């Protein structure tokens, strides 16, 4: 096995990982980007980035909207800290070459569900994520202190008596490299691919969270999974995302030809995502075909603001100017993750986490639309600065774990895991279904060979998520228990909004 040494190792190259790398200068950064620049969750983001920069807006108003969407379960201090840094994040992106739609001093601001005022900035219409990714990737490639490796994927952590000491990485051919690093940053994205229907890229299968959990890192909020209500219903994996801004512009959800959101929530189609996703799930469970009627938008000049949605529809033989777009809810964003402080420190010395793999407390039980890119840039930048300015640990040689077999997403066990979570941990949950899912996962786990450690770690993560969901005897935000439909302030199990540690 090869052995390398690195100062700062960053695993993942979305907006969060790239923000860490750029702000960590002048320290040397080794960045692992096996997914490349075009297949990150950032690059697939179709909405925008939220910032309280418009007339009549304020940090207090943005914070209030964030807390309300979170079902009053988020950290108010974290919300205020991150939202207050939004202006700086926008400036950083502009300095990195990003051009937001509209004039520099008056960018176009859009409205999305849960926001009380238009505050969503777009770049290249509904391809904001891709535009951010391209700008940050180009700047990172030009930075002399960063070395990018696209041929290595981190599969485990190296650990020692003083904490995390790097990572074990493998090449596509199976050869392994032990990377001994002073500091290790996980920016590996979300867990959407644990579910049968998702908008997340293929690599977003929870591997960073799973390996941190296996090594005893504190985690929080594992039960809180946000389902986007308007993924294009088709045979793709991941499913193309139809931005929420379409509903902000006037598109309406219909089931068998009738609009249904007005009867469910006074905010109608602009109700928070968890409310809309449950409504779509309910209509689908009743056997009705759900579609997004955006014909009026795509018949007008407003359709030019949504080139990504148009391209996705055309690619699947749909003319959205003539026909409502078939949609489904799909796993979209994980509010839970590795517990971190404001600068990305985890409970394990030497390990940092940023982006969707981390839990900052910003989102609570339900993420407000377009706050994720904001969090990625703000917290990623803060972590990079802390790494650049803080005390330096002595590099240690960590214990090398056994090299596992490559993760194989075509295995029937993996497909079975995704089906189990989709059925039991979808937008509507029941204890009986959660309990049965645990039994099914235990049986699945017993069939795995030792060499299948990557899959076994994901099964263990799924079990932890289900246990957290069973322990929360209430409906809150994206966690909806049909057997506890009314919020109950009591906690009959572990409070998963607080921090828990792996067993």
Distance between the termini: 30 Å
Query: Residue-averaged pLDDT, rounded?
Result: 92
Per the CATH scheme, the topology name of the largest domain is FAD/NAD(P)-binding domain
- Secondary structure tally: strands: 21
User: Low-confidence spans: pLDDT under 50, at least 5 residues?
Assistant: 488-496
Top CATH class of the largest domain: Alpha Beta
* Share in helix: 25-40%
How would you sum up this structure, described in words?
It contains 15 helices and 21 strands. It has 503 residues and is an alpha+beta fold. The protein has 3 domains: 2-190 and 335-389, FAD/NAD(P)-binding domain (3-Layer(bba) Sandwich); 227-331, Succinate dehydrogenase/fumarate reductase flavoprotein, catalytic domain (Flavocytochrome C3, Chain A, domain 1), CATH 3.90.700.10; 403-498, Up-down Bundle (Methane Monooxygenase Hydroxylase, Chain G, domain 1), CATH 1.20.58. Strands 1, 2, 8, 9, 10, 11 and 19 form a 7-stranded mixed sheet that branches. Strand 4 (102-103) and strand 5 form a beta hairpin. The longest helix has 19 residues, at 371-389. The radius of gyration is 21 Å and the shape is globular. The two termini are 30 Å apart.
């Amino acid at each position: 096995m090869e052995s390398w040494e690195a100062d700062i190792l960053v695993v993942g190259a979305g907006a969060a990982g790239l923000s860490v790398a750029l702000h960590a200068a002048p320290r040397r950064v080794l960045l692992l980007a096996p997914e490349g620049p075009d297949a990150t969750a950032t690059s697939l983001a179709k909405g925008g980035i939220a910032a309280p920069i418009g007339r009549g807006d304020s940090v207090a108003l943005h914070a209030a909207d964030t807390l309300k969407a979170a079902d009053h379960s988020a950290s108010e201090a974290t919300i205020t800290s991150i939202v207050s840094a939004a202006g700086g994040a926008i400036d950083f992106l502009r300095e990195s070459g990003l051009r937001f739609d509209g004039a520099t001093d008056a960018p176009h601001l859009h409205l999305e569900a849960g926001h009380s005022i238009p505050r969503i900035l777009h770049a290249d219409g509904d391809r904001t994520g891709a535009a951010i990714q391209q700008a940050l990737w180009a700047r990172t490639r030009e930075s002399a202190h960063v070395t990018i490796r696209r041929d290595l994927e981190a599969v485990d952590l190296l650990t020692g008596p003083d904490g995390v000491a790097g990572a074990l990485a493998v090449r596509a051919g199976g050869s392994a490299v032990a990377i001994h690093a002073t500091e290790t940053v996980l920016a590996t994205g979300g867990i959407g691919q644990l579910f049968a229907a998702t908008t997340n890229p293929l690599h977003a299968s929870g591997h960073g969270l799973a390996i941190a959990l296996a090594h005893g890192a504190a985690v929080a909020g594992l039960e809180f999974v946000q389902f986007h209500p308007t993924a294009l219903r088709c045979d793709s994996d991941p499913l193309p995302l139809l931005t929420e801004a379409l509903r902000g512009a006037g598109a309406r959800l219909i089931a068998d030809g009738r609009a249904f959101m007005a009867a469910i929530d006074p905010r109608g189609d602009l109700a928070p995502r968890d409310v809309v996703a449950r409504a779509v799930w309910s209509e689908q469970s009743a056997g009705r075909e759900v579609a997004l009627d955006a014909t009026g938008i795509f018949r007008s000049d407003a359709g030019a603001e949504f080139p990504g949605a148009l391209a996705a529809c055309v690619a699947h033989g749909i003319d959205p100017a003539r026909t409502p777009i078939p949609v489904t809810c799909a796993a979209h964003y994980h509010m839970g993750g590795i517990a971190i402080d404001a600068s990305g420190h985890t409970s394990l010395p030497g390990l940092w986490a940023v982006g969707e793999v981390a839990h900052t407390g910003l989102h609570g039980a339900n993420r407000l639309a377009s706050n994720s890119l904001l969090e990625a840039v703000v917290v990623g930048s803060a972590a990079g600065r802390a790494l650049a300015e803080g005390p330096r640990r002595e590099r240690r040689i960590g214990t090398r774990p056994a090299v596992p077999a490559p993760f194989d997403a075509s295995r029937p066990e993996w497909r079975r895991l995704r089906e189990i979570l989709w059925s039991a941990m979808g937008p509507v949950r029941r204890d009986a279904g959660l309990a049965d899912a645990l039994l099914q996962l235990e049986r699945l786990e017993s069939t795995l060979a030792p060499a299948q450690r990557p899959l076994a770690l994901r099964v263990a993560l799924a079990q932890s998520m289900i246990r957290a969901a069973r322990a929360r005897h209430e409906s809150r935000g994206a966690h909806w228990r049909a057997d506890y439909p009314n919020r109950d302030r009591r906690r009959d199990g572990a409070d998963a909004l607080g921090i828990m540690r792996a067993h």
